[in-house]
Specification:
Layout lengths: L1 E8 L16 H15 L4 H6 L6 E8 L8 E8 L6 E10 L2 E11 L12 H13 L2
Amino acid sequence: MVESRTQITVRYAETDMMGIVYHGSYLPWFEVGRTTLLKECGLPYRELEALGYLLPVTELGVKFARPALYDDTVTVITRLKEKPLLRIRLDYEVRRGDELLVTGFTVHGFINRSGELVRPPAVFVEKMRTLFAAQG
């Protein structure tokens, strides 16, 4: 398993009139977690795009347990639990300290610039093989 942690301070624009984080605001936080995890793995999303690969979301799910509030500092924990083959699934937790607020997941497929499904680039496959082999 590969894990990344990203801290976010809730901005006023991400909340509703009650100061509670609007449900749609969590999806960009998932994206921040995903791109941070890829960068920490040595696979910045910008480089994947430069190679001609894109990773659109093909599936997602979110479960809300407790609300995040304006000016909270939350941690987005992003996990890649299984070595990806043709698709990549990421699991997320959003926490305020030890308190679990939200869980979710996204699934992404690899496409080329023409929108055709493709296999992941060799550099991605090799990096994932190395990361998951190191965990033994």
